[in-house]
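Build the 3D complex.
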Amino acid sequence: MLNYIAKRLLWMIPVVFGVICIVFILSAITPGDPVDAIVGFDAPPEVKEAMREQMGFNDPIYVQFFNYFKGIVTEGDLGTSYVSGEPVVKELMRRFPTTLTLTIASVLVAIIVAIPLGLISAVKRYSWIDNASMAVALFGVSVPQFWFGLMSLLIFSVKLGWLPASGTSNFGGWVLPVAMIGIGNAGNFARITRSSMLEVIRQDYVRTARSKGQKEIVITLKHCLRNALIPIVANIGNMIGISMGGAVVAESVFSVPGVGRFMLDAINQRDWPAVQGGIVLLALSFSVIMLVMDLLYTAIDPRLKAEFKSKLKINARKRKVQEA
Amino acid sequence: MAKLYTPAMAALDRKKIKQKGRVKKSSPGREAWKRLRRNKLAIAGMIILIVLILTAIFADVIAPYGIDQQMLRNRLQKPSFTSGHLMGTDDFGRDVFSRVVYGARISLPIGLICVFLAFALGGTLGAIAAFYGGRIDNVIMRFMDIFQSIPPMLMAIAIAASLGNGVLNLVLAISISTMPARSRIVRASILTVKRNDYIESARAIGASSRRQLLKYMLPNAIGPILTSFTFSVATAILTVSSLSYIGLGISPPTPEWGCMLSASKELIRTAPYTLLFPGLMIMITVLALNLFGDGLRDALDPRLK
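Done.
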């Protein structure tokens, strides 16, 4: 177990390096002169040249990469925004909590809505409840999220006036963005729950439990659901990744001041350090979330634990044999 | 050596079949098709897809107006059967119905091409990883792991932002960002068939690696790949429209559905119907693909049914 955890932690090193590398390469292949974005397109050539020298754009590409990498790893420095002149980290940190909340909240809401839905569908297979909830789930995975956002905006804030159309200053402002990101996840989760429940229901141990007269509710929740949840838990990390992408779009639809909106504005203004910084920040936090999820997963899956324990026992026995 | 099979023998065979009555050959594909045909939802999805493809092909004939034909006197008309603007007109006086029809020419092919490319790139790598195993597998998959540590949508945004707008760049952005996931699917499906006896016998008679992979493993592993292909096209269409909506990818005045929504988002208070139809079209397309994909999965893998 410890071995696995250590391995998993060490794996973060190439991931961090890889992420920064990918983002840097993407910035390097961007057409256009970055100096134009800082001093303006029609600045005199000597000003541009001075700026280029100052920003280190004249250095060889590997020196630029090394400096960028060193900045991030040693001081958490993601560069300076071309537009505002402030450090990108400062700008991002102001917005990051919003994006993170949006992402996590949407995944939680999706789980809370979808698991009961999938469970009931599987238990009452082919009933009207099953058909209805699977229709809703199919709608969830098929509807374009931003369009669902726009339509709910139209209905709940423009027509009915129940919820604010933009911003997250109060609780109401969170409802629509979270629903928009959550709907796709909820549909996906409900479908996964149903199919994995159906697979589990047919297992022999379920039949055994039933034949010894166990209560149906205990069978469903304890024998079936606990096993059926494994593919869902394994999928939560992925869902968080998808939700992070969804958050970027949702922030644009509902004018939520988060990292995604900041990045999209930066793309329009060709403020590349800000874009780079946003992607590095989101990707690294996603990697950390994945790390935590993986560790949790090994901690809660009894089968992995059992495997580990039996290995220990075997080792202990071997040692005894050797000693004897 | 090929078995001798002359036209005369073929004629004799045909005669035999005629005498016995029509004997249909059975193959895994035919069995799957039989199962698929019984699934009403899957067939509904297929019919919608066929209609959409026909719409895309015959867009010139179906659309009453051109994509850029501006009728400034008829701006922001409400949808109605009588005025000739079935879905109304937008703020430039362009017929929304015509633009939605032409939109089918963009979203469907782009979605398909993105997934083809993603499977061509990722699938090849995944197949190689599964086939050779060991260190090659490890290197390729760890590389994919690193790639996947950037969420696909963010990756697509980053690539689209750095390459700039345009259809080709958008396709590249989506295919590259979804490549790791596709490679995993191909790798997993190849791994499930790799240990079968017929692969071993192919190796025993001296089939080359390429032949083993393409002739023996791929056809037997194609089920999950096909299913995932269908779902991937659905996701790709959603991603294309999202990226166009946030202003990366396809830019106006192209009648791409996401792009149309992006151009009309300012009209949400004055002319909300301009937002309704392009989104509905995306949803119908994706829904049809998902229905068909579900049916395909059940047909190709009857164990799950």
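The mean pLDDT of chain A is 83.
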